[in-house]
Amino acid sequence: MTKMKDVNAHICPTCGGQLLVDVERQMYECPFCGVTFDYDYFREESVLGIAAQALNNSEFDSASRAYGFMLEKEPDNFEALRGKALIAMNITKIDDIRNLDLYSKLDYESAYEEIGKGIEASKSSDREYFTVMKDIVDAGHEYTEEMAQLKIQKSERNSSLDRLNDYVEERDTLYIYASPRFRPGKAVLLTLICYMICCLVISLGYMLINRNPYSKAEDLSQYETTQTTESQSRITNPYGWKNNNNDAVKLYTNHQKYQEALKREEQRKINYENWEKTHDNKSALLFILGFATVIFAAVVIAIIMKGRTINAEISWMQTKTDEQGDKIKDREERMAELKDRIGQDYQRLCELHQDDEGE
Predict the structure, then answer these.
(1) Which residues of the chain register pLDDT less than 70?
(2) Who is most buried in 88, 93, 146, 262, counting CB within 10 A?
(3) What does the pLDDT read at residue 181?
(4) Do 335 and 151 contact (CB within 8 A), yes or no?
(5) Beta-strand pair 27-29/20-22
(6) The Cα angle at residue 314 between residues 313 and 315, in degrees rounded to 5
(7) Crossing angle, helix 44-56 and helix 60-73, to 10 degrees?
(8) Residue ranges of domains in the chain
(9) Residue 114: closest CA among 91, 146, 72, 82
């Protein structure tokens, strides 16, 4: 058998010079010693066997030189054309063409070049094989592009879902549209109840702070009761008292206290009226309640408007994520179609050359 290095380099066994190929004469000629060799000297089976062994061992450079040597001798040789195509795709057997991971790192320019040579140089009976091979590479190329776009779309959809969740959480914090228990109608009712409680607290606090200090009247009944009791006793028993002078003094004293109490009460009433006139702060209370009402209404309106804005954002974002989901689904379906196409084309390759099916 011819040595591998002699086949790869077209070395003259006589002088070691580089052999030249004479296609017309179907011979190899040494320009140094003039020795010629018939094509049969380098037998086809030996060259293809050496190339196949090198390819199987992933020795792509050696396999490429052997297949190239064979193509110089026989340009339409199917095994050599297919071997060059496999080398261009950096695979060792045709079965690897079904591996979808292959196409993410494939040199498409080199692969298309060698497959194109196979289509142009092969025999008519072998041309369909390389045409189907090109269709597989086309499908793999498209599959890789679809996968890259799918990753981008999934990333964008995940970002959209994150934003959608943020909007939902922000809306839920408003406690207006968060759940069926907090519908807008109930939210308005709760708002009115809170407002009424707030106004009641403000009013009570204001009244407590601005209470009239002269509003409490003095109890005169104690003086009136004492005087009435002593007077009745004196009339009933004018001569039965042993200490009439003391009783008279006591009666006078109680009467004097009663009169003083009456004067104090009259003065209290005057002071009460004067304080009310000088401290007429009902307008201030109304101003405070009005200001609180405006603030409360502004807060409620802001919450409602914010809720509506967020709901609009949620609706828009939900529509966007749904559209992105539909696009992802369409792209996944397209990738499944391409995968089936690659599998069907591979089966066609096996049908064209049954001997390749077990590779």
Answers:
(1) 1-16, 21-28, 35-45, 174-188, 223-254, 279-282, 354-359
(2) 88
(3) 47
(4) no
(5) antiparallel
(6) 90
(7) 160
(8) 1-73, 75-180+312-359, 216-280
(9) 82
